[in-house]
Write a structure and sequence with these properties.
There is one protein chain. The protein is α+β, with helices and mostly antiparallel strands. The protein has helices spanning 9-18, 34-43, 47-69, 81-94, 126-131, 134-149, 153-164, 167-170, 174-200, 203-215, 226-235, 253-263, 267-272, 281-292; strands at residues 73-74, 100-104, 111-115, 120-125. A 4-stranded mixed beta sheet has the order 1-2-4-3, sandwiched between helices. It is globular, with a radius of gyration of 19 Å.
Length: 296
């Protein structure tokens, strides 16, 4: 069994201050959801999360890439050039280096980003490519590039190892670290939905891509009524079942679509489309918080 070795989160954090995958300072990520940004700053002072992230980085560097990518197929200019062009376009929109992307044989509509802030990669399930058109896939890849742009990658990797294997090394630290990371992840998804929209430049496309994740049926996509779908969120507000979202890594999909519709009214997004006016990001975040909060 592999060993983790001494955990040195403080050294890791200092290294990240000198070198970040996104290539831009934090204060230039104007579209990021403020609760995501603030939670990540807090993480650097939380001991359980510090240890979990340090262990995840070490585990990934030791054997994680081989474990996760043993059956994946790498996207590039000669292999799946159509998908590669979407990756290049997303990276250019967000101002990051073009990341490595791999296609994984999996029918579940999903994509994920793992690694470290210096060595990150995106995994796209084959089912997603089969169900989504190019515009929708651009939004999804843009979402994943948003994780890289906002230095989310080590936390996503920590969540993976905590869920799958890290309990063997970390013992008592697993539960508090996972709860903290899950809460952050729900906020991070809001940031990256915005990144996906900035890349797609089309609200209808980005919200349709989110709704497809819930539906998963090529025979029914054309009949999907977005307004009816969003009403599900309102119907569930009085239900005790809504509290299970506390344990989830993603906000419920109707919430994400509503939150994205608010961001589409922002000055940041309208500037990206060359349109005048729009809400301040502070007003957008205030309205979004009321949509995605789990309690209260």
């Amino acid at each position: 069994m592999a060993t983790v070795g001494k955990l040195d989160f403080a050294g890791y954090v200092e290294a990240q201050k000198a070198k970040r995958a996104g290539g831009r300072a934090r204060d230039e990520h104007a579209y990021a959801y403020v609760s995501d940004r603030n939670t990540r700053w807090t993480f650097e002072r939380l001991r359980p999360v510090e240890l979990a992230v340090s262990a995840a980085v070490r585990l990934f560097k030791t054997f994680g890439r081989g474990e996760l990518l043993g059956k994946a197929v790498k996207v590039g200019p000669r292999q799946f050039p159509r998908v590669h062009e979407l990756v290049v376009q997303s990276a250019q929109s967000l101002g990051i280096p073009t990341p490595n992307v791999y296609i994984v044989n999996n029918p579940v509509l999903n994509a994920a980003t793992y690694g470290t802030n210096e060595d990150s990669f995106i995994m796209v399930h084959s089912g997603l490519v089969d169900h989504f058109d190019d515009a929708e896939l651009l939004s999804v890849i843009g979402h994943e590039c948003g994780h890289i742009h906002n230095s989310h990658v080590v936390y996503l990797t920590a969540m993976h190892y905590l869920r799958v294997m890290a309990s063997a090394f970390l013992g008592w630290i697993v539960v508090p670290a996972l709860l903290a990371l899950n809460g952050w992840s729900r906020r991070a998804e809001i940031t990256c939905d915005r990144a996906g929209l900035i890349c797609s430049r089309d609200l209808e496309v980005s919200t349709r891509a989110l709704a497809k994740l819930a539906l998963g049926s090529t025979k029914l996509y054309a009949e999907l009524d977005m307004d009816a779908f969003l009403e599900q969120h309102d119907e569930g507000q009085g239900s005790v079942g809504r509290f299970t979202e506390v344990l989830a890594t993603h906000p419920w999909l109707p919430k994400r679509i509503k939150a994205l519709r608010v961001f589409a009214q922002s000055q940041i997004y309208r500037d990206a489309r060359g349109e005048p006016g729009g809400l301040s990001i502070e007003e957008v975040d205030r309205r979004v918080h009321e949509i995605i909060k789990v309690l209260g």
